[in-house]
Design brief:
Chain B: Residues 291-434 form the VPS9 domain. The complex is a heterodimer of chains A (204) and B (560). Chain A has helices at 20-31, 74-78, 93-109, 122-127, 136-146, 161-179; strands spanning 8-14, 45-52, 55-62, 83-89, 114-120, 149-152. Chain A has one domain: P-loop containing nucleotide triphosphate hydrolases (Rossmann fold), CATH 3.40.50. Chain A has 204 residues and is α/β, with parallel strands linked by helices. The model of chain A is unreliable at 31-40 and 180-204 (pLDDT under 50). In chain A, strands 2-3-1-4-5-6 form a six-stranded mixed beta sheet, sandwiched between helices. Chain A is globular, with a radius of gyration of 17 Å. Helices cover 69% and strands 0% of the residues of chain B. Chain B has 21 helices and no strands. The radius of gyration of chain B is 38 Å and the shape is elongated. In chain B, α10 runs antiparallel to α11, α14 (343-365) crosses α15 (371-385) and α15 packs across α18. Chain B starts with a helix and ends in a 34-residue tail after the last helix. With 560 residues, chain B is mostly helical. Classes of the chains: A alpha/beta (204), B mainly alpha (560).
Chain lengths: 204, 560
């Protein structure tokens, strides 16, 4: 059993095959070749310590099943998450529609959750501009409208991947300093149970 | 045809699942086919009966004792003295008697030993019955009880040494103390687990000196306080426990300046201790409809028995032995969750189960599994396992686990996935399995089974079933059955061999006995026993020097 303490929960949302898992894989294995996460057989949950200034923030990165089949259950996944990375495929406009759906869900249900829009497979777009289906500036506008951060990444080249998660960690660190006095930072006992604790799977 | 196929799978009749009392709820094999409510009633009644029987036995034994030995137990000590005296006389007899009486001696010692064993056994029997009633029968004469108690201590000590574990288990002390006793097996386990948890907790706190004492005091006070709050709803109970966690960890932080790691470690132990203690009163409390939900889920999973691994798009190939091995382990783990008392232990079971699933997927696909692979696999495992009291367990973990655990960590991730799996199973419809509505309805109503669609090379049942079983993708249960049959048949062969040799031995013994008898007979015939007439027993015949003695006195007659 992993005894690693996790500071916050980051959910990965996005349509099937947009590359959520690859993104996490790229990020985790690129930076740290040795560490406790190496023991995880699956890539579904990863605990990743990140240096933010002098502090270390451990992100618990939750991969989620993107299939539409499980759409009704996604609410259970992002419950209590402080950050959500909503992924879409830069070469697939339908995936962006799905991303919009999750953004709406998050705005409705998790107001404390920060949203990070993440276009994936940027390497394909770099190689051939014609395959791009999602305009960078449109997305930028959308991101500003919903108060989200926007990244375009490539898991293949590692482009922008570290930046994305670094930003997630930094934002979390800042929010902790705002919300809770420093002495208690990082202890999740600080977040007292909310109503969602009681509505596990019978209530949605 | 369709009717025939329907019967192929393991078919359980609806009526067999219901409570035997006919109350309409579902029964459980662990409760002898009764539902939990009926079982509770039944168990109480049986217990009452047991107590009465024990009393009757105790009284009967008392009467027997009075009738048989003339001396009632009030003269117990006296009787013991008698025994001692008898022993002394036996020993005296032994020393005084000639060697020819050897065998008799051991006999008498045995007879001496025997009543004392019998006596011990009898009093032990009474003791057992009294342990049951937890009180001395008031009808017993006071002296008896006193003597008995004294003896009880001694005997108990002796017998405890021998039967320690089973005795502990058999002692229903916990029952009478905690009042509420849902089932014998649980209460048995409970007393041991509670003791162990307390011991471990104390052991842990010892290393902390002053804060340790403080923590222990607070926990005790909290548990005592909770005893008075049994009537509260589940949510309020949860609130109490969570507040306690919160306050205690805050206090540890600020008061004892613990690092967050050490506080977390302490809180883990606190949770273990408190929840082991409170488990009985807060798990699936009667104030909630958890039990109803358990039954609904169980029913639902049973109704979905036809869902195949392909429909769920699970990336596990159960044909690979290693994979099916891990599948079985995962199923065992998720079922085992119900047997744990502490939320974090339950979570550990879920995590263990998930790890096995990941291994299974990894073996099948040769790459680390993502959530897209994992969730369907977990759903499949839950469908196969149909874990007992699933909803109750989930609710219990949600209510009483340290929130940081379920919210962020790895355990939390797998727990969330389990919740998702359950939610999926509850909502599952034709669309989520990529089936047409008609197909789904047909499967649900049991009119047909997707495992053996018509004309799929599955010959009708008449005669060719074994071939089909060998060739077609077998139900893993059947495969397991076949696999189990092999060692079983091996066992039966070995048993046959054993029987044969035992019979041989028996014959040998018989012939040996006969041989010995014949030999003895031979010897007896060769040297027949002749009884010589006893030598004329004259006084002084054996005295060699009798001639040296002066002549015997002869009576002389004196005149006058």
């Amino acid at each position: 059993m992993s005894a690693m303490r996790v500071d916050t929960k980051v959910v990965m949302l996005g349509k099937e095959s947009v590359g959520k898992t690859s993104l996490v894989e790229r990020y985790v294995h690129h930076r740290f070749l040795v560490g406790p996460y190496q023991n995880t057989i699956g890539a579904a949950f990863v605990a990743k310590p990140i240096h933010v200034g002098e502090k270390v923030v451990t992100l618990g990165i939750w991969d989620t099943a993107g299939s539409e089949r499980y759409e009704a259950m996604s609410r259970i996944y992002y419950r209590g998450a402080r950050a959500a990375v909503v992924c879409y495929d830069l070469t697939d406009s339908s995936s962006f529609q799905r991303a919009r759906f999750w953004v709406k869900e998050l705005q409705n249900c998790e107001e404390h959750c920060k949203i990070y829009l993440c276009g994936t497979k940027n390497d394909l777009v770099q190689a051939d501009k014609s395959v791009r289906q999602i305009d960078f500036h449109d997305t930028q506008d959308f991101a500003e409208e919903i108060g989200a951060q926007h990244f375009e990444t490539s898991s293949k080249t590692g482009n922008n991947v570290d930046e994305l998660f670094q930003k997630v960690a930094e934002d979390f660190n800042d929010s902790v300093f705002q919300l809770i006095p420093p002495g208690e930072a990082g202890v999740d006992l600080g977040q007292k149970k909310d109503s969602y604790f009681y509505s596990c799977c019978h209530n949605n | 045809m369709s009717q025939r196929t329907e019967r192929r799978g393991i078919h359980v009749d609806q009526s067999e699942l219901l409570c035997k009392k006919g109350c309409g709820y579902y029964g459980n094999a662990a409760w002898q086919g009764l539902c939990s409510k009926c079982w509770r009633e039944e168990y109480q009644r049986a217990r009452q009966k047991q107590i009465q029987e024990d009393w009757a036995l105790a009284e009967k034994l008392q009467r027997e004792e009075e009738g048989a030995s003339l001396a009632p137990f009030s003269k117990f000590e006296e009787k013991k003295t008698n025994e001692k005296m008898r022993k002394v006389t036996t020993v005296k007899k032994f020393f005084s008697s000639s060697t020819r009486h050897g065998p008799q001696k051991s006999c008498s010692v045995v007879t001496f030993v025997f009543p004392s064993i019998a006596c011990t056994l009898r009093s032990l029997c009474i003791l057992i019955s009294m342990q049951h009633t937890r009180a001395l029968p008031p009808s017993l004469p006071p002296m008896w009880s006193a003597g008995l108690v004294e003896r009880e201590d001694r005997t108990l000590r002796d017998w405890r040494g021998i039967f320690s574990p089973s005795w502990e288990m058999g002692s229903p002390t916990e029952d009478s103390q905690e009042g509420k006793s849902p089932s014998p097996s649980i209460s048995r386990q409970a007393s041991m687990e509670t003791d162990r948890a307390s011991k471990e907790f104390l052991e842990f706190l010892k290393s902390m000196h002053r804060p340790g004492r403080e923590i222990h005091k607070q926990c005790r006070a909290f548990i005592d306080g909770m005893a008075n709050k049994k009537d509260l709803g589940a949510e309020e109970l949860s609130e109490c426990v969570q507040d306690f966690y919160q306050n205690l960890s805050d206090r540890l932080m600020s008061h004892f300046k613990g690092s967050s790691e050490s506080v977390e470690r302490v809180m883990d132990q606190v949770e273990k201790y408190i929840m082991t203690r409170l488990y009985k009163s807060v798990f699936c409390p009667e104030t909630t409809d958890d039990e109803k939900k358990d039954l609904a889920t169980q029913h639902r999973i049973r109704a979905l028995h036809w869902v195949t691994i392909e429909m769920l798009c699970v990336a596990m190939d159960e044909e690979i032995p290693e994979v099916s091995d891990n599948v079985v382990k995962a199923i065992t783990d998720v079922i085992e969750m119900d047997s744990k008392r502490v939320p974090q232990d339950k979570l550990a079971c879920i995590t263990q189960c998930s790890k096995h699933i990941f291994t299974a997927i990894k073996i099948t696909r040769d790459e680390p599994a993502s959530a897209d692979d994992f969730l369907p696999a977990l759903i499949y495992i839950v469908l196969k396992a149909n874990p007992p009291r699933l909803q109750s367990n989930i609710q219990y973990i949600t209510r009483f686990c340290n929130p940081s655990r379920i919210m962020t960590g790895e355990d939390g991730y797998y727990f969330t996935n389990l919740c998702c799996a359950v939610a999926f199973i509850e909502k599952l419809d034709a669309q989520s399995l990529n089936l047409s509505t008609e197909e789904f309805e047909r499967y649900m109503s049991g009119q047909s089974s997707p495992r053996r669609p018509l004309g799929d090379g599955w010959a009708p049942e008449d005669g060719s079933a074994p071939q089909g079983a060998a060739a077609a993708p077998m139900n893993p249960v059947l495969a397991q059955l076949h696999r189990n049959l092999e060692p079983l048949s091996g066992l039966s062969v070995r048993q046959d061999r054993l029987m044969e040799r035992a019979r041989g031995l028996q014959e040998e013994l018989v012939s040996w006995e006969e041989g010995v008898r014949r030999e003895v007979q031979d010897i007896l015939e060769r040297y027949p026993l002749e009884i010589r007439p006893p030598p004329p027993s004259a006084i002084d015949t054996e005295n060699a020097e009798s001639d040296r003695l002066p002549p015997p006195l002869t009576p002389q007659v004196f005149a006058g």
